[in-house]
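Input (structure):
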């Protein structure tokens, strides 16, 4: 096996970073927006709005547009042109982290609710099948949005810029809360599906 020097690894990682920032991320941005726009066109039709599962997917597509056009755009700016407004402004640091966290949780819960809706729709029990209705889906979507908007409110209060990065303050109760919250999301949402 050939010895690879540190300078060779640096060149390899620089090429990978360049490829991701200049080629892969813009393609993901364009294809993601195109796909989500098609989803919105399909899911917003009258016949689709009568299907509760498609309402959850409509909600997920709306959130994906925010994620792509806000989160991925900022990632492309930072990786390609070294423009990082979240590192210059504490207000923007907090808002960016809050928006990204909220939108990703809304997306995950949309997929979870769609899975639960399909489980209810295929149940043998009539009362459980009654849960799979557009009226219930609209209520669940509204509740999900309100819950997620309040769930991450602590980010707007406690995030700070440390060592040139937008981070949670170390050795605080907020750090413990954020860690437990992240673990709960990572474990409970997939288990709910």
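Output (sequence):
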């Amino acid at each position: 096996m050939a010895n690879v020097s540190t300078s060779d690894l640096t060149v390899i990682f620089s090429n990978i970073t360049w490829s991701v920032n200049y080629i892969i991320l813009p393609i993901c941005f364009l294809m993601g927006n195109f796909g989500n726009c098609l989803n919105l066109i399909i899911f917003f039709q009258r016949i689709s709005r009568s299907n509760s599962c498609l309402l959850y997917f409509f909600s997920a597509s709306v959130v994906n547009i925010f994620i792509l056009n806000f989160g991925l755009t900022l990632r492309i700016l930072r990786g390609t042109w070294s423009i990082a407004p979240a590192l210059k402004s504490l207000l923007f640091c907090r808002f960016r982290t809050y928006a990204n966290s909220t939108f990703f949780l809304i997306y995950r819960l949309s997929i979870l609710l769609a899975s639960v809706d399909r489980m209810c729709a295929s149940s043998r029990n009539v009362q459980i099948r009654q849960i799979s209705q557009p009226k219930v889906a609209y209520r669940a979507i509204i509740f999900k949005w309100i819950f997620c908007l309040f769930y991450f409110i602590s980010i707007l209060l406690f995030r700070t810029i440390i060592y040139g990065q937008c981070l949670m303050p170390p050795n605080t109760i907020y750090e413990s809360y954020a860690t437990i919250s992240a673990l709960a999301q990572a474990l409970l949402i997939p288990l709910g599906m």
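Notes: The CA atoms of residues 90 and 168 lie 12 Å apart. The helical segments are 6-43, 52-81, 90-121, 126-129, 134-151, 153-158, 173-192.
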